[in-house]
TrEMBL record:
Transmembrane segments: none annotated. It comes from Exilibacterium tricleocarpae. One of its GO terms (molecular function) is cysteine-type endopeptidase activity. SUPFAM superfamilies: Cysteine proteinases (SSF54001). It comes from the Bacteria. This is Peptidase C58 YopT-type domain-containing protein. The keyword Protease applies. The keyword Electron transport does not apply.
């Protein structure tokens, strides 16, 4: 683990300290404004689920909604307003179900994916390492939540036998050549930005990790 000599609110330095590389620059707030829609609570669950769906079948979310791809230079892909609005509607439809977890699970199955595990853990480094290391050549849909607050946040990751790829709807997509670097990065990032935010005390204090496989 690297020695940290920078504030945790510096995302770029935190990423570089853990050998992460940005592959897709994206922010759901900006994209939602471009689409002319303002859904209450964001669409992090929908974006994370769609990211997993495309990545699992050798595709990329950026190919469908647009954004800035970082791959030996920045390539701008045109924003697909129609597709992005469809992603928004998916999240809105989930909210109509009495049990939103059952609804998203059904969607996962309908897209030829399988949920093999679903566990809740605290936000300690040992706990998150233990939970994420169970996944090999599969995906983690991570919902950060708390019994003390009414909102939650969703992110996604591909965790291979060696590497990892992380999608955060407010920041984009990032690749780590060593999955252990990602585990450390995610611990620091999530504890600061979701639990003890420099903007406000968000109060999220636990993960619900669903292991998803093709």
């Amino acid at each position: 683990m690297p020695n940290r000599a920078f504030p945790l609110d510096n995302f770029g330095q935190l990423l570089r300290a853990h050998n992460g590389v940005r592959t897709f620059d994206f922010n759901q707030t900006i994209a939602t404004r471009q689409a002319g829609a303002v859904p209450s609570g964001g669409i992090c669950l929908s974006l994370s689920c769609h990211w997993i769906k495309y990545h699992a079948f050798d595709d990329s979310l950026v190919n469908h909604i647009g954004g800035v791809r970082d791959n030996n230079g920045r390539t701008l892909l045109a924003f697909n307003q129609q597709e992005y609005r469809r992603v928004i509607r998916w999240q809105q439809s989930i909210r109509l179900f009495p049990d939103w977890e059952m609804a998203y699970r059904a969607w996962v199955r309908n897209n030829r994916l399988h949920i093999r595990s679903d566990r809740k853990t605290d936000m300690g480094l040992a706990a998150v390492r233990n939970e994420l290391s169970r996944i090999r050549d599969g995906y983690a849909l991570i919902i950060i939540e708390s019994q003390n607050v009414s909102y939650s946040h969703a992110v996604a990751a591909y965790i291979g036998t060696q590497d990892a790829c992380f999608f955060e709807p407010n920041y984009g997509e990032y690749w780590f050549s060593h999955r252990s670097d990602f585990f450390d990065f995610f611990h620091f990032f999530s504890n600061f930005f979701y639990r003890r935010s420099h903007r406000q005390n968000l109060g999220l204090d636990s993960y619900n990790v669903a292991g998803i496989y093709r």
